[in-house]
Design goal:
The structure holds two protein chains of two kinds. Chain A is built from nine helices and no strands. Chain A has helices spanning about 5-15, 20-40, 45-60, 70-95, 115-125, 130-140, 145-150, 155-180, 180-185. In chain A, helix 5 (about 115-125) crosses helix 8, helix 6 (about 130-140) packs across helix 8 and helix 7 packs across helix 8. Chain A starts with a helix and ends in an 8-residue tail after the last helix. Chain B is mainly alpha-helical. The longest helix of chain B has 27 residues, at about 35-60. The relative contact order of chain B is 0.05. Classes of the chains: A mainly alpha, B mainly alpha.
Chain lengths: ~200, ~120
């Protein structure tokens, strides 16, 4: 998975210090980075800062980026690592009592107006990190198995087994939560909890 | 269905408007960091490092002689140390000292003790 002609051209220009070329890269990949970060940490206020940090780090490493993988895969790898560090830091700060109990697993809004996306955010936040990252890459980013293996630097077999476990876990969480959503269930009787 | 929901959730994930401009400003800002700004960025680290250094200097000025240690700590040290004289003079462990003074006396007897390579 190399770079397209356009990507290579912009990358070369960005390496030479062309701000417009780097701007093009940010514009092109910002949604991909946003999906990764918000999939990992939810719609947290730090998501924007983490997103900026991803591109700043990419800019610093422009000379080291060989182009073996696509820019998207490389950015996703940086984003996932930053998110993991952020989540671990939050867990420690929460344990030490510096920040209040998590609002990530709380539903925002009343039962009647909770939408499915909000429920999905909560369900994702309850997943372990490894399960969360693989579901984000597979279903939110739409990466192929090979791309996931490359991004997470794990063998293909591990990707498959980890994905199966993550799907099962998400389904369990979703079903547990679904019991609380009686209003919504009445409105959506045909919803199937399968992948 | 859950797949579809995940994809839909992903589609709703975007950064606030003007994100690219903010990134560019940040990148350019880091590039053109003046000396004072650079110092300001590193000040917390500098402060922490100087605190640790001062603490170490303060520690080194303290007189760390054994007299500052509580007797129980000294006895623990002695009980570890006595293992050597016990091996050097067989049977010495039968007279295990129960006070610091007694240990000092015992140690004084076995003090000119030399360790020989096996």
């Amino acid at each position: 998975m190399g770079l397209t002609e356009q990507e290579q051209k912009q990358l070369d220009l960005a390496r030479q210090g062309d701000d417009a070329a780097f701007f093009w890269i940010v514009e092109t990949y910002q949604n991909l980075v946003a999906r990764t970060i918000k999939g990992m940490i939810g719609n947290h206020q730090d998501a924007d800062d983490l997103g900026q940090l991803v591109f700043v780090r990419f800019h610093k490493n422009l000379s080291n980026f060989r182009g073996d993988s696509s820019i998207g895969t490389y950015l996703c790898r940086i984003a996932i690592n930053l998110c993991k560090n952020h989540i671990r830091k939050m867990i420690i700060l929460r344990k030490l009592g510096f920040i209040s109990e998590s609002s990530e697993t709380e539903i925002r809004g009343t039962q009647a107006n909770i939408d499915l996306r909000e429920r999905m955010r909560v369900a994702l936040a309850e997943l372990p990190l490894k399960a969360r990252e693989i579901l984000v890459l597979r279903y939110i980013q739409g990466f192929s198995m090979n791309e996931i293996a490359e991004t997470l630097n794990i063998p293909l077999g591990t990707v498959l087994s980890r994905l199966a476990r993550a799907e099962a876990k998400l389904k369990t969480i979703w079903l547990e939560k679904a019991e609380d959503y009686s209003v919504w269930k009445k409105e959506n009787p045909s919803f199937s909890y399968t992948f | 269905m859950l797949t579809k929901l995940l994809a839909e959730y992903g589609e709703s994930c975007t950064f606030r408007s003007g994100f690219s401009h903010r990134v560019l400003c940040k990148v350019k800002g880091e590039k053109n960091l003046s000396l004072s700004e650079g110092l300001a960025q590193f000040f917390p680290k500098l402060a922490l490092a100087s605190f640790v250094f001062s603490f170490l200097v303060w520690l080194s000025t303290l007189n760390f002689s054994l007299k500052f240690l509580p007797e129980t700590a000294l006895q623990s040290l002695a009980s570890i140390a006595k293992f050597i004289p016990v091996q050097a003079s067989a049977g010495a462990h039968q007279n295990t000292p129960d006070s610091l003074e007694a240990w000092h006396e015992l140690y004084a007897e076995t003090a000119p003790f030399t360790f020989t390579e096996p």
